Amino acid sequence: MSTAYKSAIDLVRELKQKHGNWQNISETDAARMMSQNRFKTGLDIAKYTAKIMRQDMEEYDNDTSQYTQSLGAWHGFVAQQTMYAKKKYFGTTSKTYIYLSGWMVAALRSEFGPLPDQSMHEKTSVPKLIAEIYTFLRQADAKVLNDYFRELNAAEEAGQDTSAILEKIENFDSHVVPIIADIDAGFGNEEATYLLTKQMIEAGACAIQVENQVSDAKQCGHQAGKVTVPHEDFISKINAIRYAFLELGVEDGVIVARTDSEGASLTQKIPVSNEPGDLASQYIDFIEMEEVTLENAKENDSLLKHNGKLVRPVRLPNGLYQFREDTNIDRVVLDCVTALENGADLLWIETPTPDVEHIKMMVDRIKEQQPKAKLVYNNSPSFNWTLNFRKQIIAQWEEEGKDLSAYNKNDLMSADYDGTELDTAADEAARNFQRDAAREAGVFHHLITLPTYHTTALSVHELAKGYFGEDGMLAYAAGVQRKEIREGIACVKHQAMAGSDLGDDHKEIFSGEHALKAGGGKNTMNQF
Known about the structure:
One of its GO terms (biological process) is carboxylic acid metabolic process. It catalyses: D-threo-isocitrate = glyoxylate + succinate. Helices cover 48% and strands 11% of the residues. It is α/β, with parallel strands linked by helices. Among the domains are: 278 residues, TIM Barrel; 35 residues, no CATH class. An eight-stranded parallel beta sheet has the order 12-6-4-3-2-1-14-13. A three-stranded mixed beta sheet has the order 5-7-11, with no helix packed on it. The protein has a three-stranded antiparallel beta sheet with strand order 8-10-9, with no helix packed on it. The longest helix has 33 residues. It is globular and about 95 Å long. The two termini are 32 Å apart.
């Protein structure tokens, strides 16, 4: 008998002896329900998953093939089915996380309706989604364990050996996995960041991703108009997040510091430098400036003494300051090193394309000062993956002197190239991208931010195209249900997935033979 299950039985037996009127309570049934609900609070989850992430980070440091992955989920059911699939095909949820994307919260979860990724959605929608995801993941645990306990009861009634079933219960691999949760730029000042972080942790988040953009002008990392903040401001946000973790007892909490500096060309303010070469001074060095004299300076100009000269920082009509061209990579490196020096655990660098060599170039520079630097990398749907890898292969072949006359470099997305040598090579590069980036460019965690936004749109599009057309009901029967049956997808029995079997067993536990159960002979789910 499993240790946890037996301990729960012993506990309930003691409680029954203590409370003499609890005789209707079955020790085994109560222990079963206790075993099926391992996590009592979101904080329990945050502490448990933080340890998983820390262990994974250590294993990656020792072996870069041990990288981790996640898919973005915009609903608890999506996260649940992701973990169901991972366990079905690979037997474990190990090295698999869930990513909570601020973009998808804005686009799909805001009470305002669909919004762009500009931190306009309600900040409370983020912890609400975290809690929802863990509700669905915990329900997945309860459902699968309930099936095991059904097996156990049947084996006991038949007088069969139950050791294998008890081992499955004892060694159960939970669907509850770490969430990396996007707090955007913190939704306000450092106090606002601290308060929201606490809610996110209390909902179950063990890893908080924060970016170095201005909160009130935040943009999606793959759009124009990004405005970064001085390092001192960003460090305050990192501090606020760490204090929230410590206050709530999540000692292993993980902070992911994201820099948008590669694509950002603007800053909102000039920090105060106290001595040459300090952090503020290094930030100021990146700002575009014009040498002036007092005589030719304009009225109300903002002027600085910089490197012994009087200069005017270039300021746009909206009041923002502009960085010098070609400083973006230097700014990325300084951002990352500074974040790691000031409490961040992992880095996130937004890049314009998925290019291992480009990522490696930046990470190598960071590792000169922070040898254990590791990335969380956004395998973004904003990249045209097919086009990017076809371009990379063409560039590689061009360098090798290969004949490229069969390809039009201005039309590489053409379906005419599907199935060609170019297509095969580019697809192989895409297949190996995560392995290569983990090995060569320090990427510990690979995520796709918005995959289930796109898969939902695609699957609904395909169903609607067939169902409202000539295929009618065949579109669903062949395009959805038959595939579910052939693949053995548990969700084909949607009543059970929603908790019907679990509820029936609870009714029987609570009411005995008086229970009115839904899973009888007339349940149409028996067709499956």
